[in-house]
Specification:
The chain has 7 helices and 8 strands. Strand 1 and strand 2 form a beta hairpin. The chain starts with a strand and ends with a helix.
């Protein structure tokens, strides 16, 4: 068993069982600081108005929002489950089960060994630059695995990943070349000029 801790989730990897278990990290200690910050700006009336507006208006992807700062791990788990079951995209590492986002069970895949630059550049080409919507997830090879020789994304809890998966997931799954090298590709492009 391997254990990895991210900013918003705790992940237990069981290669022999073929599963990964993801738990959200709830940042409950941040609630008091956020309440104190809003309250000090104008009392209870201001706090309640601001809190209500922020909770209803801002999404979990809005940096600094209450939802993101406190519950992002829970929301990410739920989004992974929902996106997989909604699209059944072959590009997604299957998420088999969720317990309302408090626990996710995902299929294990062999970690991606590609250089980040080679991964990023090929994904950029295959998606016509759409990976810029979430450069954090698509530029890091740790967010991917190889399953049956095919590239799959294992960390797709952010909403900004959704459009790339829906629009380009099938193309990435079918066309991704594990032997791609950005330096060689640059040379080929220069020769064509």
């Amino acid at each position: 068993m391997l254990k990895k801790r991210g900013r918003n989730r705790l992940v237990f990897i069981f290669p022999k069982l073929g599963v990964v278990v993801k738990f959200p990290i709830l940042h409950l200690s941040r609630i008091f600081g956020m309440i104190k910050g809003h309250f000090s700006e104008g009392g209870w009336k201001f706090f309640w108005k601001t809190f209500k507006h922020e909770f209803n208006y801002y999404t979990a992807d809005t940096i600094g929002s209450f939802k993101r700062e406190v519950f992002f791990g829970l929301i990410a788990n739920w989004n992974e489950f929902y996106l997989y079951w909604k699209t059944r995209s072959l590009f997604l590492q299957p998420t088999y089960f969720t317990l309302f986002g408090f626990l996710n069970i995902q299929k294990y895949g062999n970690p991606c060994q590609l250089q980040d630059v080679d991964l990023w550049c090929q994904l950029h080409i295959l998606t016509d630059g759409k990976v810029w919507d979430d450069s954090h997830h698509f530029s890091n090879s740790k967010n991917f695995s190889f399953d049956d020789g095919k590239l799959r994304i294992v960390d797709y809890g952010s909403y900004t990943v959704n459009n790339v998966v829906i629009l380009h997931g099938e193309k990435i799954f079918n066309s991704f070349n594990p032997a791609f090298c950005w330096e060689e590709e640059k040379k080929k492009r220069e020769e064509r000029r």
